[in-house]
Amino acid sequence: MAWLIGVDEAGYGPNLGPLVVGASAWRVESPDQDLYQTFGPAVCHSPAEGGIALADSKQLYKPGGGLRLLELGLGAAIGPIAEWSSLIDRLDADPEDQRRQLPWHRGFDPTLPLDADAAEVQHASDRLSHACTAAGVSPPVVTARLVFPAEFNALIEQHGNKGAALSHVTIGLLRTVINRCNSGPVRCILDKHGGRNRYAGLLQHHFPEHWIEPLEESRQQSRYRWEADNRPIEATFRVGGEASLPTALGSMTAKLLRELSMRAFNDFWCSRVEGLKPTAGYPVDAKRFKREIEARQAELGITDTVLWRLR
Q1: I need a surface site. Which of 122, 137, 157, 296 has the fewest CB within 10 A?
Q2: Contact 6, 23 (CB under 8 A)
Q3: What's CA 134's distance to the chain center, in Å?
Q4: How far apart are CA 180 and CA 200, in angstroms?
Q5: What ranges make up the beta strands (E) of the chain?
Q6: Whole-angstrom Cα distance, residue 53 to residue 57?
Q7: In the predicted model, is pLDDT for residue 63 greater than 90?
């Protein structure tokens, strides 16, 4: 038996809200397995195909389009979750409870799902469970990491730029997931981080007890191999990594957490500034939003440290 692991992020570009990294790990027969082929019609890239849609979050979510498909996909993988706080705990996404230091997260604990129907989430969960059993695949291990502005800014200061900050968070989460995969070969697919082609040093930093062997470093993909406890581990950073099902689920997980966190953020500010329009947090609109909340922010004594990502 082997493990397939996928990792992806959401919220790398915005100035407001968290960066989120999501990961999924699947116990399978072969590290070369294509889970879309394994599951057949039960799992697909698009809801129009009739199965459970597990794909790049950009294909399944558009601003203003609702969270239903993200909720169905993640719910299929981990089962129904009743509240936001339970989802965070289930994914171990905020191990130090950093969100509770933010005014917009205090008291924010909506019932889930928000846009999907609870019965259809349960149906999706049952369907994927049956597909896993039929294929001899274990239900996935899904986890995530929320990085709020204060920590994000500290990581930039520590590592020099936001690309390096993202890479360290991503590979740190990858290490956590690999540690949970206790036997058999491991194959990891990660989406490439911007224009970066070389990851050996980053991997060596997070896996210092192993020698990281570069196999390929190119614009399309960068591959690395090492051994841990007599089992081979291979990590590939690939353009379009979300084409791999485990990475697609990581993408969906990260995006759902990001959007729910932004729901808390917008609810807080829109209830305190009359006529304020919500924001997705991306640079141009983030500046508009920050300008419009400036007076109220000062009244509430909320510093830019917890609000604004510097890059």
Answers
A1: 157
A2: yes
A3: 27
A4: 22
A5: 2-10, 19-28, 43-44, 52-53, 141-147, 186-191, 213-217, 221-228, 231-238
A6: 10
A7: no
Q: What is the DSSP string of 51-104?
A: SEE-S-HHHH--TTS-SHHHHHHHHHHH----BHHHHHHHHT--TT-GGGGSGG
Give the whole-angstrom CA distance, residue 172 versus residue 165.
11
Which residue pairs, CB below 8 angstroms and at least 24 apart, start in 49-56? 52/76, 52/124, 52/127, 52/128, 54/245, 54/248, 54/249, 54/252, 55/242, 55/248, 55/252, 56/242, 56/243, 56/248, 56/251
Q: Which two tokens stand for residue 32?
A: 């070369």
Report yes or no: 308 and 149 within 8 Å, Cβ to Cβ. Answer: yes
pLDDT tens for residues 16-53?
A: 999 999 999 999 999 999 999 999 999 999 999 999 99
- CA Rg value for the chain: 19
Do residues 45 and 285 touch, judged by C-beta distance below 8 A? no
Q: What are phi and psi of 239, to 5 degrees?
A: -65, 130
What single-letter amino acid sits at 170? T
For residue range 121-154, list pLDDT tens digits in order. 999 999 999 999 999 999 999 999 999 999 999 9
Partners of 238 in beta bridges = 191, 221
CA distance 31 to 233: 10
Q: Would you state the pLDDT for residue 190?
A: 97
Q: Is the peptide bond before 113 cis (omega within 30 degrees of 0)?
A: yes
| Residue % of the chain over a pLDDT of 90 | 95
